Fold these 4 entries.
Entry 1:
Amino acid sequence: MPSAAFQILLSLVGEDLHGYGIMRQVASQTGGRMRLGPGTLYSSIQALLQEKLIEEVDLCEDPKLGHERRRYYRLTSSGRKLARAEAERLADLLRVARAKKILRGEYV
Amino acid sequence: MFEKICACLLRLYPSAFRARYEEEALQLYRDRLRDETGMFQRCRLYFDLLLDALVALPQAWGNTSAVSNAAPLVATAQNIPSFRLLDKQPLRPVPILIGSTFSFAALSAFGLMMRLPSPSRSYSISSRPSPIKSVTKRLNHAAPAVNDDHAATANGSGAAGAPQRQSPTGNASTIPVDSGVRLDDAERGRVIRAVASILVAHYVDPQKAHEASDLLLTREKRGEYGAIVDGPTLAGRLTKDIRASTKDSRVLVQYNRHAIPNSPPVPSAAQREEYRAAMLRQNCTIGKVQVLPNNIGYIKFNFFPDPIVCSPIFHASVRRLNQSDAIIFDLRDNTGGIPDMVADVAAELFDKPVLWYNPRATPNASMLPSAHGSKLANKPVYILTSTRTFSGAEHFTYDLKMLKRATVIGETTRGGHPGAVYHIDDHFWMVVPEVRKPSPYGTLDWQGTGVEPDVKVRAADALAIAEKLAARKLRMAVRSGSSR
């Protein structure tokens, strides 16, 4: 799974978010390392919608951003399963990396 | 401004994507623009914008392609070939115009880089490489700049560099540059008298020259040329009348719209460099070098170019065949070249100086030194000829045949240099076949008659025959060697 798509799925785990909200959440959860541009963000959203891993929610206002109505996105159950499977796969990878002792510092 | 740039970038995305996400994407730009202030954050925003366009575009088009692939292909149901469309909306005129402009610009730039002929540069149908033409032009002292084909003809395709002959009337007055300007009676009469005078003075057959000259002058007096008021028509009419009288199609009167320079054009450094680069790109027009069965060397020369550029390459090519037992020179498509290069190549075939004839040199015969390092001196040489073999190639063939150094196989050559070029004035010039004198070998040279082959066969069969003759000669040499 592409990294951007996985990050988007993760960002939607706790709450429904609109595009800008997803971008900020992804930036937050990656420590600012990943800043999704609109092209990447909406291309990924488009692909995730086609795979039914996320779904659109009715337009509503974001109280923090004024009165403009925005489209929100929500994680579907299959999206949640896929995100979990991807996380487990990465966790397995992490275990292997730890066993190989290629990590240093606090991760060892 | 920033939003406009973003909107432009979004136009690169598929229409379906734009229809669905354009407004949201612009909103996201606006949000970031509002929240990310300060120099560093703004710079980061612009950087993100560019990076995002580069990364996301393929993905967006990939998504569209995936959707269209998944759709049922109704159009192909009846076995009708169809194209799969990435975008449902037809292209608008503006993108088509922009795409066409960029494509043309890219192709032109590529052509320029590769120095390929561009549509704005004219080349003759014969597809003779332009560098060769530039050589023939350079050699052509008459420099009839407008009509290259005539220039080549007048010069014997540049083989020996036809000597420039000045007008017998001296530096005549200039006829108007543009052919649209009318010739008056005085100008027309002066040209006709000059043509008649040149014929009498230089034409190969004095009796025919007088007849043709009288004919022109008589017709001029009768006013038969009075209706001709432009240069090209007058030149054509005079050519026709002289040819009808002399029965000699080599005579030519020509008119150049642009003034013919008084002295041979000196190529600029840039032109020399261009010629050099072009020659090197074409491997100096050497067609092929290979070793045939029975260890017979074969080399195909299509031209004898300027030795200053090509001499090392020619020598190296010939010496690649040093270990051959015989050598075949294929000159069937050779249209001439520079006499010095002709002599340069011939020197490879001798181990002692020989008397070398060059009709364009003064004196016309000199001792040709042998080339150091050549191992071909005592090996059989065969030259393949055709009716296309011309000028410098005939020079090579004739001299080696006369020196009994080569066996000529194929067809009688074209007949070389048709005559000398004479200026009539700044715009008119003519070609007159010269008086032929015997070469130092005791015979008339190839000019006007061509070189007769020793073995007369069709040009297409010449190589096979040469291979057979060479193989037989080599076998006989082995037998006679072993019997001693």
Note: The first strand of chain B starts at residue 164 and ends at 165.
Entry 2:
Amino acid sequence: MFRKIEPYFFLAPALIVLLVVFAYPVVRLAILSFQRPSAGKMLFVGTANYRAILTDSVFLQAAKNNVALLICVPIMVVIALLLAIFLFERIRGWQFYRTTLFLPYLLPIAVVGLIFSYIFQLSGVLNEFLTSIGLGKLALDWLGSTHLALPTLMFVIVWKEVGFGIVLFLARLMSVEEDLFDAAKIDGANWWQLQWNVTVPQLAAVIEFFTIVSVITMLSWVFGYVYVMTGGGPGNSTMVTELFIYLTAFRYNQMNIASAVAVLLLLITGVLIFLELRLRENSTIVEAVE
Amino acid sequence: MRSRYGFKYWLGMSVRQILVVFATLLSLFPVYFMAVSAFKTKSEYIANKWGLPVSFYVKNFETALAGEKFFLRFANSAILTVGGVVASLVIACLAAYAFARMEFFGKRTLFNVILSLMVVPPVVMIIPLFVSMVRWHLVNTYPGTILIYTGLLLPFSIYLMTNFFRAIPREIIEAARIDGCSNLGIFWRIMMPLSAPAVVTLIVVNALWVWNELLIALVFMQKDELKTLMVGISALRSRNYVDIPATMAGLLVATIPIVVVYIFGQRFFIRGLTGGAVK
């Protein structure tokens, strides 16, 4: 009898913490999103909060920006794949390059964001450099213009996140049977054919994994970059959903509106999380519990 | 056959080398820029933005450490990091043992649910958590914030430890059981000592995560004397007057622990962050 319930003693602390930090808040969140405060009490208002955000121009701008950030995903996949392949071909000093290319991924976003905002300042390093090599015309207000701020932010996100892809792909490449590459070479495949017909199919599962993780990042883990570098500006041009939730809830004290946005975000990431879970179950990249 | 190692091969290798070197310089430049700026006077920074420092002005560090309550913020970050890492490690190892070496109802489903929590964005939970924490008087306290960090670290920690425990041969456990060892005894005397590498990996990765975290710290540690290093840093940009070299000195001190640990424990970072995604 004891053996039957014993596992739950081992699980109990984890389950309690997960209930407090994940399960209970999600239920509360859903309830909050259908309520509004009125004379010190919470009243159910149906879908009023949802209708309000769907006509809120700042929220719509934020959602649009998150979608725009998705452009980073294919860029990251391609860069990470190319660099991982180069390192795998054992170019001289590949271990050193692996170490340095991975470093940005470990640095705090707050630190990275601040350094980059000094680099991209109107009188910053980048513009001084451009001017000094005679490209003064290209010295633009990288973070201060409504057209450029989002692309600049994307550059920083790719700069920091791509290292994860490189290391992930490289680790997988190293476990591919060497014979596969040799066989293709003997068959006379050129470099591009080799990558396209052998490397990419062999890495398919890890590429999918990295793609899904990156999509989730772009939709719901970019708060730090925006908060530190632009604060959503200029003129909401870099507003993202997370920052919108944060500001609405904690600066403008509209917890219920913010909750409705959070519910939408959770639903969207939920679909992606489900996809990722399927991937983990069906593929050999990750070992699941038997 | 010769042509393969002739001009075309040489050209291909050069192109690769150039691209990789370019990417490496790009990765390192911000770190280099931070390090050299930290040793310049303000006027030198304006005159010479990317060159090596001439004046070697170490007073920047004094300015940075004295202002902005640097030590206090550093200590706050350290307390939260140690608390979150230790709590999540103990709790995750216990759960992982059950997942890896015990049979119970709903094991697979439960494990998958926990896995899926790994990518749930924290921003979704902060509003209801904040409402609850206010009611429980846990906002602006170390235990409250550590509880949240522990919860957020658990899914990945359980996942990593479960995979590691499963790789430990069953024979060892069976032998111990025949010798009369209880589950708790097996866990404590056999599984944990054998898992030292995984534990180190987990500590390193989780510590990095808490140390770098911004959103939770911003919402749950609002009082000035409780703010973390990253929150302090993120507030620097919005101020009107900024002493950039002194700021860079502060950033450098905040970053050095990470870089040092990375240099000495690189394989733990790489193994941990690729999270067993590659077998």
Note: Residues 66 and 219 of chain A are 5 Å apart (CA to CA).
Entry 3:
Amino acid sequence: MSLIPRLTSLWRNLFHKDRVDQEFTEEIRAYLDMLTETKITQGLTPREARRSALVELGGVEQVHEKVREVRMGQLIETAWRDVRFGVRALVHSPVFSVVTVLSLALGIGANTAIFSVVNGLLLRPLPYPEPEQIVHVWHTPPQQSFPGLDKFSVSPANYVDWKAQSSAFEQMAVYTDTRFSLSTSNDPLSLIGAVVSSDFFSVLRTNATQGRTFTPDEERPGRDQVVVIGHGLWQRAFGGNSNIIGQTLTINSRSFTVVGIMPAGFEFPQEAELWVPLAWNDNDRQIRSDHNYLVLARLKQNVSPEQAQTEMSTISSRLEQQYPGENKGWGAVVIPLREDLVGDIRPALLVLFCAVGFVLLIACANVANLMLARGANRQREIAVRIALGAGRARLIRQLLTESVLLAVTGGLLGFLLAVWGSKILVQLGSLPNTGDIGIDTWALGFTLLVSFGVGIMIGIVPALQFTRANLSDTLKQGSGRTGGSSIKQHTRKALVISEVALSLVLLIGAGLMIRSFWKLQNVDPGFDTRNGLTMSIFLNWIRYSEPHQRLAFFDRAIEQIRAVPGVVSVGATTKIPLTGGGSTQPFTIEGRPSAAIAEQPMALTRYITPEYFRTIGVPLRQGRFFSDHDRDNSVPVIIISEAMARRFWPGEDPIGKRLTPSFHAEQGAREIVGVVGDVKATGLDIDSSAMMYMPHKQAPLPFMSFVVRTASNPESLVQPVSKAIYSIDKEQALTDVQTLDQVLMKSLSDRRFNMTLLIAFAGVAMVLAAVGVYGVMNYTVTLRRRELGIRMALGARRMDVLRLVMGQGLTLTLIGVAAGLVSAYGLTRLMASLLYGVTATDYLTFVTVPVVLIAVGLVASYVPARRATKVNPTIALRTE
Amino acid sequence: MARKQVDLLQGTLDLLVLKSLTLGPLHGLGVSHRIDQITKGTFKVKPGSLFPALHRMEEAGWLQSSWGESENRRRAKYYRLTAAGRRQLNTETEDWQRISLAITTALKAT
């Protein structure tokens, strides 16, 4: 049939349904009449003929129904009718509908929110052309010096050799991320940016939207005072004005000409807003042992990361032989960019995704249970419809329409929740690449897909069961309540058991996270976080090129800060504890056999002012702190941490011993004057490693973090302290202004994020499971009213009834808990990498959590059990 | 009627309905009588399957219906073959002959 008649027919069937129906009624009546007449002519009496014709017809309604079904447009028409009918049915039971929609909204919304994060970080390709070809190439450091570190930044000379010798890459670029001070008419802006080689942008295959990126010529010192700015910065600081190109900006007290503006969303490396050329001179290119750069490369077409890895391994072992002094033990590793950016967060996200999936499953089980309970009351309605000629398939479709309707309503509501929830997720967790996370069409598609799936999942069991019911049995039962539907009760119990099991798995997961977090919080960071304020500054190399200039700046800054009312003491260090590894240096110990630099032991290195330890609260164990007398013309001194003392001078007194940090070899051996307590440098969950401290005055670096001990709330001093520093130089921007408590909080933020979410999911799961147990027990009590009445009439005491009902609830819970324990035992291993100080099968958690859940199960069945004891035998026996 | 009745094969009903209408338009009961007649009582088409088939075939464009007057002056709905219906009858007849030949051959094989 061609399109137009088909459409007319569709139109007719949909919108002139009454006429079509009426015509058929007429047609069938004519048929009946004619058949009757035929039979009369065959010799039957009119009465008999009519009867026989009716029998032959076999039910006008059934025939009519079948004809309707074959009609084109039938599908759409019934779907529409199902929806209308469904809406009506749902409006009729508002409590049921609201409860269902809300629990599904929570379940689906949580899933959408987590999905948007997973999609943004793990699934969606990076926003560059052919992103799977982009890789980071890292060094792998020698394990005896850097235990546990699997990647390390690259030195200039090694990069130059890699680039020259490799053939697997289309392009290889080098960059380093750093902070810049952009001078403005007010306080300077501190910006994250990168110093990049000229092919950096072509590796990413991203060009400037206006102007251009860098030319190879601009990699030469002297030609490098050009800058490319990000779209965000352009909008924010320059009002999106295009004539910014060609203008001059003062960055780190140098002037740079703006040559290009990058497209919106280009923020590589993370959160970078401006890029300047990397200009190495010939000496820089020779440096092999100073690892400060990241190498970004694009694989050639048809070259896999594995092939590139093989080539890089060959090259780096060749370099090891060629330069054993600097390169011994230094390998190379090729890591696809995405994996490198999100590698650490993947296990946590997958655990959360599983957890949130569990919550949805539990919510579904609950809703399915509700639908079963509600369906029991609809059994009569359904039986009547079957009797009136509704086909089973047709009824199943009707019931599924209702459940899908519920699920989609819940899903759309959940989507709104997710829009709001994913914003919180991004704020709560320090997630990488946050520009990519958001509710988009993918998330909407996911929501709809999940909603449909959920709708079918929650509807299919009730739909199959109700339509299977024995017609005459149901119709015969006057009250419409089917007592003997034991299959249905089995299904309901099975659903509740799985709810309990799933929620136990979640609770155990959350329990393990709480235990880890609790253990971590009891870890001593090694310093006092109360009433402490910190802020960092990176003096620019030009204005502060001479050591005495830097010394003068920091001396004055400390003096100024000390003068601020409310400041108790002030010190400075090159890196605040808990904020990362920072500088690590090889060293040699006087009187012990010396080794090549690649084989020397390593220690984290900090440069500090004399007051630093006292200010931050690191205790002195032996010897003395630095004083103002330790300066460039006095004896070179060093303070080591307890861990370092234990490791290198076990059972000896390290005071007075001498060692030479390799970066300061020209100053000769340094005398150990003190031993101080260990601090957690990288994180509370990482053991304190060897650390050495040198007086800033003997090695004045341009970047320092101030530590200010305050008499009261440190936040109130942020303004006066920054002002004190800006009074010295207005072009040096302060960064990372935070209290020491915030530093501590931040170091735990990933864990707190994972833990909070897991607790939330587990909590929701537990409540849902409790509601499930309550629901099924409550229903059981209703079904067994009569029996309970008889028991009580025969002398059962309230206690017996209570025990009977609660025993049943307890059995359900126990089976669920047992199943949950087995699954948890298998599943929690997957989250081992998220734990600290507890094993994935931590017995305390595996005992406590089931006890809690069993208690919750008991409470949930206590309420129906109490109701059971209130059954009045006479009334119970009289009804039904 | 002692003759043995046979259940209609899937698809056969369409063929019989189309065939019954080749001589001219018929109403529902007429179609059913005509099938009874041309199959010599082997197939009895009940309204429960006849009407859905008629409506389906009408929607498929093989039949066209119109109201007319029956032999005893009753208003009845008459079905007639369309061009598409005739084509369909030809295809189905060919198919059927092929199948029936094949089955007969198969059954005669020793």
Note: The CA atoms of residues 37 and 43 of chain B lie 9 Å apart.
Entry 4:
Amino acid sequence: MTRLPRLVPLLGAAAISATIAAACTPQSQAAPTDQEVSSALVNNVVLPSYKKLVNATEELENALGKLHEDPTDANLEAARKQWKATRKTWEITETWAYGPAETDDFDPNLDDWPVSHKELAEALAMDDFSEETFAKLDTTGRGFHGIEYVLFSVDKASDLTKQQLDYLHVAVEDLEANAKGLLAAWSGNDGFGKADVEADPARTVSDILEGMTGCLDEVANGKLGGALEAGKDELESTFSGNTGADVVSNLTGVRVAWQDSKLQALVKGQDAVLAQALTDQLNTAISLAEALPARLNDKLEAPATREQIEDLMAAIIAAMETTESVSEKLG
Amino acid sequence: MRLRHPTNKLLLACLAILIVIGLGALIESERPVWAGDPHRPAGDMTVFKRGFSTFETPAEGLTKAEFDRHAETDPLFEKSHVPLDGHAGAGLGPIHNAKACSSCHVLNGRGKPIAGQSLFRVALKDGGGTQPVPDIGFQLQDKAIFGHSPEATVERTWIEKEGLRELQTRITQPDGTELSSQTIARSLRIAPPMIGMGLLEAIPESDVLANADPDDQDGDGISGRPVWTIDSDGKRKIGRFGWKALAASVNQQSANAYRDDMGLTTATGPNTTLTVDGSPADISWEELDGVTYYTQTLGAPATAETSDSPLMRQGSALFDQLQCASCHVPSHRTGNNPNAVAKVINNQTIWPYTDLLLHDMGPGLDDGVAEEGLSSSSEWRTAPLWGIGVTQRVNRKASFMHDGRARTIEEAILWHGGEADKARERYQALPQRKKDQLLAWLNQL
């Protein structure tokens, strides 16, 4: 676990000044009900996010299709750019990964980690790479990181083998199918959104808070803490150098769940100071994450970078502790 | 008041008898059947939370150092294993059922009876299910790493029958040969929840044996048989974990799961990197010990109702009256082990609702696999019930019994047979209001 209280007094002061301002602001709107929070989570947060994910995977499929047909450096660069854009739409959903993403195995199919280098190398060494070959790969050879491993493995497009291009073509179709499956699992009257979440609004608030806590913990102690202890190979998205962007997306997702589900407004109705403190801490954490150097994995050993990461971890942990306070407050 | 008429005296006497009987019945139906605080099933390790992450929440009562170690070892449970370079067969597989503990124990809860979250145990029907299937063994590995073939693939079909469902399977080997259901028994197993295992491990063996009655000498129709097994430390102990109680300790259960479910061998001790047969281990002792520690320091959720609530009183009384509690023994006390991995495991009154013993559950649950003769094919360890009400909160389509055939807790009750025949019949004879009470009580565990 972490032991990084260096920035905490600073964060505390910022939170206090902001909360004083918040406490002085008149509350003009009634706090939303559990049902409103529940509906907002499903219809304003989750479904739009998975629709964006599906659209992005379709665009990635187009980009990789172009690369497959015409493996130029420009098409390689476009595909890499689209991979990062698609990745952003997925990482933002981490907070609401509970439900079908976790229980129906969409998460490992889309985002298993680490990559099984040995199996991928063997599969890509076959004379032909077909859908049958792909079917023999487990989730550690598929998903975002399988595609990333191949797409970012070469210096130039002409270095990509036919097997690698074929792999990318099949793998992105699988990625898209899983994104669509996840959206479908939340959609419709029998979907998780309506049949489970909206049908039992009393549970939604605690679910969101548990999801926020889980995501903050995963980022601080898993992704960042693990990398500080074990080195850059532990960093997810290390091949593309996208780890910092992943972290920003994760934290942004926490803020989206907090604000766009109307949970923030609900908490504000009970404790405006606490609500504002959490908002401020999330904003601080996101700002610190945005300030991380690009290609974080390559700069992990630099003292200044490590200090930045430690500060970010402290900020995330402060937000996590406040989220837990909110949970206790709401009972 | 003076009673002037003998009839009045008679009436008073009758009234007194009725009061005594009535009060007795009242006390019988609402007595605190078991002393203590069932609202806190894991004692000081109880987790006060009933959401989707409940089973993943570290136990209460850990010291700072214990909590930190729990957090450090948590990723081991979620770690996706992959094939590695090094010794032959290093890393995952080559054949396996899952690549991570969390693949089947979804969010630390029950898995669903689907491929990827469950597995099949198999045995030859000849010999009463005690003999392994040639070239397969006792467990069917339905996955393989790239370049290898799984032992077989399984087609699962659920057949509806009088409101319940039963599984039919078609097991096909890579060469297209189908394993005959006439000669080969198959037993689907879902992963149980990972809660309170450090506490179950800490119940003194003598207390477990005190509930055993293998020859039913008291004539109540309930036996309860301990499984004796050799633990990973080489000592003979009572089996406590798994659907058939084959593992005596969390360490052994973890090592078995690495070996059988993931194709990962484990080191035999802290000072060696070798397995029991002298080959290099895939999983170091440190890692095995870590995942064991993580498991031992998970608690169990508080019940939704407090101990003094009417539902808690009525439900637990019904549970007792139906004699469910004869096997699902409600409460135990953990021992005092100076070497316990966390101090809070010691001296706890816990409410797991199990006796950790095997019981004959009748032909309906007899799927023909007798686990190397350590159990008969119709015998199952009494499943702990703590946290059962949170099952579908964690994994919404998770189901019950060893193979997930029961979609609801009531279906699970209706599948009880053998030694539990009478308890099931008593349940079926209850008026709907009482059934609802019992189910509501179970759902708040």
Note: Residues 34-69 of chain A form the longest helix (36 residues).
